[in-house]
């Protein structure tokens, strides 16, 4: 159970449905095979995953002579997919988007794709340096397996408080790990001591296998000093693996400091909450690139289900536009909440602090934030769509969460705003342990969506008033 939970190696619901359809007819668990996809969308057996309003048993027929406006409308209305026979083309488009080599992206094939140097901060990145996996955790699992297979055996380092499965992978498989859970500059001081001590024990091999970190981290939104970590990796010859899911490569440039960059495509890259996926990108300028790439070229198995790739390709066509909208929305909300917090110097505020890259380790984030460039048409990166709020009391936290008019759930990067009591969900059996690293039991994590900014601010103002009323009520009792 722990293997399936942590490694992300399970199969998707689409693949499971396909497997069930292949069982012999009359089998107790067999089900009719889904109709083949021919160009618009796959019929969903679950109404919650289908496009709203589309409940027909087969895709609507579209005349071939529709004008461009009608085609665009129907594309957006019904979520047109590439045909299943084009799965290889869909995966190629995903590789190119993630590699940052696309100058013009037309997955329909009407125009030849225009490719150029990568925009990932390392111009030599190619689509061949990108590897797809069924989910983000599976990309992390495979990054760890890749390190174990190609480098001298040793403990890894988990730098900063990560999403829980990352730490479990490093602890439970292989020689174990050093956990530096605060992810601050003082932890790098401690890391230097660990590296010095381990080097003395066995000077013949690197003191650690690899360092894993998120940029920024989830849920504390802390950003590490990547140049300093990179310098240590070069000095002591270990790998750096960076999870960029929260920052995403539209906002931050982390590949130059990593040997491997992983990401959960399930999140904002997709946004639509109807498909999972993960990616692993190698840095071709990394000192260990040749052995890492050689191993993947011979050992990598493409287990990313074709139908999932079709949906991911469709969803990610406009990911850059969506990320920009989400960045703007999130900054407006965080500025509003932070201005009413103790961290901003407001006396008697019910909010203790807002964890958000604009306020949390801001110098390290700003150094990696993408700068506007008129020559390349690059826009300035934002601060991402995730933040966390801590409160002065449990009653304020509970009232805020209950009154917040948005969906409630444990994911992030969705096109709609989503909130969750993160610590209670992820660390219910280890609350005291999490608190040691600044992860409050009553922390509320929010992933901001594409809604109208003014409507979102009205909702968060409502939640703030509920939190303040709860505190006032407790004080009068």
TrEMBL record:
One of the protein's GO biological processes: transsulfuration
Protein known as: cystathionine gamma-synthase
Annotated catalysed reactions: O-succinyl-L-homoserine + L-cysteine = L,L-cystathionine + succinate + H(+)
Assigned keywords, A-Z: Amino-acid biosynthesis, Methionine biosynthesis, Pyridoxal phosphate, Transferase
Pathway the protein acts in: Amino-acid biosynthesis; L-methionine biosynthesis via de novo pathway; L-cystathionine from O-succinyl-L-homoserine: step 1/1
Residue ranges of the region described as Disordered: 23-61
Entry similarity comment: Belongs to the trans-sulfuration enzymes family.
InterPro entries recorded: Cys/Met-Metab_PyrdxlP-dep_enz, PyrdxlP-dep_Trfase, PyrdxlP-dep_Trfase_major, PyrdxlP-dep_Trfase_small, Trans-sulfuration_enzymes
Species whose genome carries this gene: Lentinula edodes (Shiitake mushroom)
PANTHER family xref list: CYSTATHIONINE GAMMA-SYNTHASE-RELATED (PTHR42699:SF1), PTHR42699
EC category: transferase
Biased composition (Basic residues): 45-55
Cofactors named for this entry: pyridoxal 5'-phosphate
Function noted in UniProt: Catalyzes the formation of L-cystathionine from O-succinyl-L-homoserine (OSHS) and L-cysteine, via a gamma-replacement reaction. In the absence of thiol, catalyzes gamma-elimination to form 2-oxobutanoate, succinate and ammonia.
């Amino acid at each position: 159970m722990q293997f399936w939970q942590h490694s992300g190696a399970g199969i998707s619901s689409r693949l499971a449905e396909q497997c069930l359809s292949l069982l012999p007819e009359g089998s107790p668990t067999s089900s009719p095979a889904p109709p083949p996809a021919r160009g618009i969308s796959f019929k969903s057996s679950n109404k919650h995953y289908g496009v709203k309003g589309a409940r027909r048993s087969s895709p609507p027929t579209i005349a071939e002579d529709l004008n461009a406006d009608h085609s665009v409308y129907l594309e957006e209305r019904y979520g047109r997919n590439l045909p299943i026979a084009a799965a290889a083309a869909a995966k190629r488009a995903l590789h190119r988007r993630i590699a940052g080599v696309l100058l013009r992206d037309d997955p329909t094939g009407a125009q030849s794709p225009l490719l150029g140097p990568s925009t990932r901060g390392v111009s030599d990145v190619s689509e061949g340096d990108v590897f797809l996996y069924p989910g983000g955790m599976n990309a992390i699992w495979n990054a760890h397996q890749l390190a174990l297979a190609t480098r001298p055996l040793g403990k890894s380092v988990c730098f900063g408080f990560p999403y829980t499965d990352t730490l479990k992978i490093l602890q439970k498989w292989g020689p174990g790990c050093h956990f530096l859970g605060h992810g601050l500059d003082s932890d790098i001081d401690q890391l230097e001591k660990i590296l010095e001590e381990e080097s003395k024990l066995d000077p013949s091999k690197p003191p650690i296998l690899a360092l894993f970190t998120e940029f920024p981290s989830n849920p504390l939104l802390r950003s590490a000093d990547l140049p300093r970590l990179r310098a240590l990796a070069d000095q002591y010859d270990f790998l750096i693996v960076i999870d960029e899911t929260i920052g995403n490569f539209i906002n931050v440039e982390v590949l130059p400091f990593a040997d491997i960059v992983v990401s959960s495509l399930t999140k904002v890259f997709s946004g639509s909450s109807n498909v999972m996926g993960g990616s692993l990108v190698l840095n071709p300028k990394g000192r260990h690139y040749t052995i890492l790439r050689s191993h993947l070229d011979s050992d990598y198995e493409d287990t990313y289900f074709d139908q999932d790739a079709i949906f991911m390709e469709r969803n990610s066509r406009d990911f850059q536009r969506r990320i920009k909208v989400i960045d703007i929305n999130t900054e407006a909300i965080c500025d509003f909440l932070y201005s009413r917090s103790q961290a901003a110097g407001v006396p008697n505020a019910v909010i203790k602090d807002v964890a958000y890259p604009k306020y949390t380790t801001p110098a390290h984030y700003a150094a990696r934030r993408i700068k506007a460039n008129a020559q390349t048409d690059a826009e300035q990166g934002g601060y991402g769509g995730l933040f966390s709020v801590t409160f002065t009391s449990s009653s304020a936290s509970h009232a805020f969460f209950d009154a917040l008019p948005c969906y409630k759930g444990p994911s992030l990067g969705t096109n709609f705003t989503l909130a969750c009591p993160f610590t209670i969900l992820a660390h219910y059996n280890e609350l005291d342990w999490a608190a040691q690293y600044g992860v409050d039991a009553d922390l509320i994590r929010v992933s901001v969506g594409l809604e109208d900014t003014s409507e979102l601010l009205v909702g968060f103002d409502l939640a703030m008033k509920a939190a303040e009323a709860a505190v006032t009520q407790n004080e009068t009792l």
